[in-house]
From TrEMBL:
Pfam families (alphabetical): FAD_binding_4, MurB_C
GO cellular component, one term: cytosol
Keywords annotated in UniProt: Cell cycle, Cell division, Cell shape, Cell wall biogenesis/degradation, Cytoplasm, FAD, Flavoprotein, NADP, Oxidoreductase, Peptidoglycan synthesis
Chain ranges of the FAD-binding PCMH-type domain: 31-208
Organism this protein belongs to: Handelsmanbacteria sp. (strain RIFCSPLOWO2_12_FULL_64_10)
Subcellular location: Cytoplasm
Protein name: UDP-N-acetylenolpyruvoylglucosamine reductase
Residues annotated as the enzyme's active site: R176, C225 (proton donor), E295
GO BP annotations, alphabetical order: cell division; cell wall organization; peptidoglycan biosynthetic process; regulation of cell shape
Family: Belongs to the MurB family.
Listed PANTHER family: UDP-N-ACETYLENOLPYRUVOYLGLUCOSAMINE REDUCTASE
Superkingdom: Bacteria
Record EC number: 1.3.1.98
GO molecular function: FAD binding; UDP-N-acetylmuramate dehydrogenase activity
């Protein structure tokens, strides 16, 4: 990116635009090289203008929420990261329909549903990240998933800046997967919730939170489950049985608490994590004959 383009980007975006921004600062793993540009649009108009400028120069766009489900390569991202957590995080309710912008925290949205006496998103109180990230990967936990109660999403076509409304049926989805058409950035999701008693909803949330605290390494840097559960099996159990707990490469280690988590014990590189992922995959293949598929998103040049 030349200086003239950087100036143009700064002038277009009313939010914030940074350059050569280390992605270690924006991922829960604390891993990743620099993004050429890191943009925090101040709102929808700002986002649209930024997308149009980036499209006019064919600059690749990486949408970012809280970076809790991604591994960014050590080489970083050649293009612009568009992070929605600053300017697009409004939450609103109309009767039993709850809506949130893509940059809203999923757990905050879940908590606001509880306070409004609306049930259906209790499972989400313990999942880190934004609604945009949750929609993109159909995040789920404790028997619930994002698409269960989804009605529709709003998205922006990043090449044209045009916004569109998609019904749930328009978005093919399955376990930890949503087939979003290329070039679309999610803006908002609307959910059909149901009336409930705030105290009872809160009690279910407390139970979910304490189960999570007991079983996951929440005080270490990680990106959640590395692999999807294969049909009818638990990836964590397969990894544990293949003897991978404690296995490490550089600063990346398979957690002793939950075998499907890799933690960054300090100074891990993306290459460390990727090498460890392949070792675990190979051991499980040899031990159980099962091919594990990654759940985390691997972003950028892998070198
Ligand atoms: C401790 C821990 C526990 C976790 N537990 C769970 C769990 O129980 N269940 C679960 O499903 N996940 C879990 N995760 C993973 C993660 O929290 C979820 O996948 C979450 O939904 C990701 O949201 P995010 O905002 O961080 O997404 P990011 O990591 O920022 O992005 C993830 C992907 O979505 C894309 N994306 C983000 N925003 C948009 C947008 N607006 N439009 C289009 N694409 C977008 C990104 O480009 C990227 O490909 C856990 C993670 C951690 C660290």
């Amino acid at each position: 990116m030349d200086d003239r383009f950087k100036q143009e980007l700064r002038a277009t975006c009313r939010g914030e635009a940074r350059f050569d921004e280390p992605m270690t600062r924006h991922t829960s793993f604390g891993v990743g090289g620099p993004a050429d540009a890191f943009v925090l649009p101040g709102g929808l108009d700002d986002l649209r203008a930024t997308c149009q400028l980036l499209a006019s120069r064919d600059v690749p766009i990486l949408p970012l929420g809280d970076g809790t489900n991604m591994l960014v390569s050590d080489a970083g991202w050649r293009g612009a990261v568009l992070c929605l957590t600053k300017g697009l995080r409004a939450i609103s309710f109309q009767g039993e329909i709850g809506s949130a912008e893509a940059g809203a925290s999923l757990s905050v949205f879940s908590r606001q549903c509880q306070r409004a006496g609306l049930t259906g998103l209790e499972w989400a109180c313990s999942v880190p990240g934004t609604l945009g990230g949750a929609l993109r990967g159909n995040a789920g936990a404790f028997g619930g998933e994002t698409f269960d109660r989804l009605l529709s999403v709003e998205a922006i076509e990043t090449r044209t800046g045009q916004t569109l409304l998609l019904k749930k049926e328009d978005l093919p989805h399955s376990y930890r997967r949503c087939d979003l058409p290329p070039g679309l950035l999610l803006l908002r999701g609307a959910f059909a919730l149901a009336g409930g008693v705030p105290g009872e909803i809160e009690a279910r949330m407390d139970e979910i939170l304490s189960r999570r605290k007991a079983t996951q390494p929440l005080y270490e840097r990680n990106a959640g489950c590395i692999f999807k559960n294969p049909a009818g099996a638990s990836a964590g159990l397969l990894i544990d049985r293949a003897g991978c707990k404690g296995l490490g490469v550089g600063g990346a280690v398979v957690s002793d608490l939950h075998a499907n988590f890799v933690v960054n014990r300090g100074g891990a590189t993306a290459a460390d994590v990727l090498t460890l992922i392949e070792r675990v995959r190979q051991r499980v293949r040899q031990h159980a004959g099962v091919e594990l598929e990654t759940e985390i998103r691997i972003i950028g040049e892998t070198l």
